[in-house]
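Moderator note: this is an archived Q&A kept for reference. The question asked for a predicted structure of one protein chain; the sequence and the answer are reproduced below.
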Amino acid sequence: MGYLQFNVMEKHQLLEKHAKAAGIPEVKVVWATFNSPAAMNDALLSGSIDIVSGGVPGLLTIWARTHGTANAVKGIAAFSSQPILLNTRNPNIKSIADFTDKDKIALPAVKVSVQAMMLQMAAAKQWGQSNFAKLDPLTVGMSPPDATIALLSESSEITSVFSVPPFQYQQLRSPASAPCSIPPRCSAGRTPSPWRGPRPSSTTRTRRSTRRWSAPSRKRPRCSTRT
């Protein structure tokens, strides 16, 4: 459901309609899809994309890289707030303390995704701050669709998946899959950060991902949509 907003915007041409109402006629919106925050950020920095939607870590990374520069990137608004579950098909795993070297945990990106950071927070609470990366060697970077297929395949080395809706609920349809308990209660923030600047011009490129929108803060920004 994290992509529903973009699907509705694209189908009903909401960007074009609102741009026209704001006095910007004939806006051309191009939607493109990327599979990683790194590729999304590179496209934003190169100028081929103007508006993107991704997770908090990706936003913080590009904000830190561009803060104080002419092409500074900042958040526009929260995109969604939704639960993420750590699911497992290993019947011996009831909490993160039960993971062993024989387990592999699939998540969107190793060390830098929201899921990876939450796993580190859970590890720090379970084993102490100095052991926050204890489970990192067990993690594997995979897209949610591929991770779901791997989890449901008995021949795969993936025994657990830290994913997002709707894939995490598809995983739980299997009798062999169950949620795993993690110590901290972590949730994505909803603090909007509006993009303030001059009226954008006639092209919009936006990118589809999950949580947050971010955009380069230029003196004359282009309103383009590649998703």
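Archived answer notes: The radius of gyration is 19 Å.
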